[in-house]
Amino acid sequence: MLHFLPHALRGIVSALLLALNTLFWCWPLFFVALLKLLLPIALVQRGLRFVMHGIAEAWIGFNKFWMDLARRTRWNVEGMQGLDTRHSYLVTSNHQSWVDILVLQYLLNRRMPLLKFFLKQELIWVPVIGLCWWALEFPFMKRYSKEYLARHPEKRGQDLATTRKACERYKSNPVSVFNFLEGTRLTPQKHAQQQSPFRYLLKPKAGGIAFVLDAMGEQLDALVNVTIHYPGGNPGFWDLLCGRLGEVVVRFDKLDIPADFIGRNYDQDEQYRLQFQQWVNQLWEAKDAQLAELHRQFPG
Question: Is position 41 within any domain?
Fold first, then answer.
């Protein structure tokens, strides 16, 4: 452990290890991705996806090493039983920090299929890691404002088309499709701007996971609903690198996906859209109550 080093120096060492880890594994990943492009044979591509997922899991495995090196975080985790790498899942979580992603990868690596996150299209230009996300077939989403869609109605439904295209590629291998229902990180400013009815959450956006169910609902074994609480306050990424992540409380809830949600069209079926939004809001009401209890049990 690096506990004898000042926090800033720990942060520099952790950042260096993260960068070296990424640079080490990106080259074999790019090589296998190139092979997959050159060999459009379904059976071969399925095998190459397993190889690429193995490379990503090795990258996450070393990230777990430097996270433990920076600090032995206290993990309070419940509900992971019943997850495996043989089935596909739809996964969601509350979103408070960029650290959420590394927390989820730390806990779920090799316990379930590789998490595939919905990403903003602009993130493909992030040096090196953007290409890694592309090679691993993460779905990149172009988000349009209501005002833009009013001026360009031909762009409506493009998110659904992108989701369907991504999910088509996932049908040959088990996958965990991940979507932050809030769409963005919780901040006091965003909470006030939204006039959110929840104490610890922003309003959920149901469309993203509805599109996933529309595209691959029969393939999904369950919805994994994750709740993350940081007793010491929401950490920044630099806090994680510096070893300031003292305690993390995580609860997993594996839920059956209602059978009558499978094969429905969220865009065109108004009754289904209302039912689905009610279901998502009920999940969020329960999550808000769970977070209130976790704040009581694990105060800062």
Answer: no
Which CATH number do you get for residue 245?
A: 3.40.1130
Is 13 inside a domain boundary? no
Take residue 177 and report the two structure tokens written for it: 């499709």
Q: Domain for residue 172, yes or no?
A: yes
| Structural domain of 149 | 74-297
The pTM of this model reads 0.91
* Residue 284 to residue 182: CA distance in whole angstroms: 10
Pairing label, strands 247-255, 140-141: unpaired
Query: 204: helix, coil or strand?
Result: coil
Beta-bridged to residue 89, according to DSSP, are 176, 222
Query: Is residue 33 included in any domain, yes or no?
Result: no
Paired tokens of 289:
């109550």
Q: List % helix, strand, coil for the chain (3-state, nearest 5).
A: 55, 15, 30
CA angle 19-22-23, nearest 5°? Answer: 85
Instruction: Please state, in angstroms and rounded to a whole number, the distance separating the CA atoms of residues 159 and 207.
Output: 9
- Split into its structural domains, the chain has a count of 1
294: Cα within 13 Å, side-chain hemisphere: 23
pLDDT in tens, the chain (300 residues): 777 889 999 999 999 999 999 999 999 999 999 999 999 998 999 999 999 999 999 999 999 999 999 999 999 999 999 999 999 999 999 999 999 999 999 999 999 999 998 887 788 888 899 999 999 998 877 665 566 556 766 666 666 666 677 777 787 789 999 999 998 999 999 999 999 999 999 999 988 888 888 888 888 999 999 999 999 999 999 999 999 999 999 999 999 999 989 888 887 889 999 999 999 999 999 999 999 999 999 997
